[in-house]
């Protein structure tokens, strides 16, 4: 019977490890797709600022209206630029934190809707898959410890009579 419990333990551990590894690698894919969308929106914001500054249509507007549009567009560009710089410049460990800190709710929702799962093929994806596997194993061992204490059979010690 002990053999069966060991096999179940291995199966559950493998499930935890595989699940965490897959989740982490897909987290990397999500971050990559989010960065692509952020880069796209950053370029669009840059083009909008340049259009307002140099476009004939905007030169025909009153200075007050053009300044207001330019200020709004520049603020949006600055917001995207700060987020893009922070996320792109972060390391593998800090990237999820930076993404959550500088997230754009609209871009997060857009990325979630259009998310395409990917097999990790780059160093970052493989790193996250391995990190996820290690964290999955650690989580399993932490969760298994109290269960193991409760399930361990208790043995009674008898004193020998002399």
Q: Summarize this, please?
A:
With 162 residues, the protein is mainly alpha-helical.
Give a verbal description of the structure.
The structure is a single chain. The chain is mostly helical. It has one domain (13-144). The protein has six helices and no strands. The protein has helices at 2-54, 56-59, 63-88, 95-101, 105-114, 123-151. α1 crosses α5. The longest helix has 53 residues, at 2-54.
Number of helices: 6
What proportion strand?
Answer: under 5%
**Broad structural category:** mainly alpha
Distance between the termini: 36 Å
Oligomer: single chain
Largest sheet: none
Round the mean pLDDT to the nearest integer and report it. Answer: 89
Shape: rod-shaped
Number of structural domains: 1
Helix content: over 70%
Number of strands: 0
Which H/E pattern describes the elements? HHHHHH
- CA radius of gyration: 27 Å
Runs in which pLDDT lies below 50 for 5 or more consecutive residues are none
What is the secondary structure topology, with strand pairs?
Layout: H1 2-54, H2 56-59, H3 63-88, H4 95-101, H5 105-114, H6 123-151
Keywords, separated by commas or semicolons:
mainly alpha, 162 residues, 6 helices, rod-shaped, 0% strand
């Amino acid at each position: 019977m002990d053999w069966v419990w060991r096999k179940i333990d291995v199966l559950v551990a493998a499930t935890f490890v595989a699940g965490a590894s897959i989740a982490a690698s897909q987290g990397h894919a999500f971050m990559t797709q989010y960065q692509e969308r952020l880069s796209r929106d950053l370029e669009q914001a840059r083009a909008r600022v340049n259009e307002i500054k140099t476009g004939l249509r905007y030169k025909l507007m009153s200075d007050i209206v053009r300044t207001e549009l330019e200020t709004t567009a520049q603020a949006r560009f600055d917001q995207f630029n700060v987020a893009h710089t922070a996320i792109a410049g972060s390391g593998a460990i800090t990237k999820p934190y930076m993404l959550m800190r500088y997230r754009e709710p609209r871009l997060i929702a857009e990325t979630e809707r259009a998310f395409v799962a990917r097999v990790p093929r780059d160093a970052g994806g493989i790193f996250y898959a391995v990190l996820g596997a290690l964290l999955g194993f650690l989580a399993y061992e932490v969760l298994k410890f109290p269960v193991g204490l409760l399930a361990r059979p208790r043995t009674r010690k008898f004193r020998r009579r002399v």
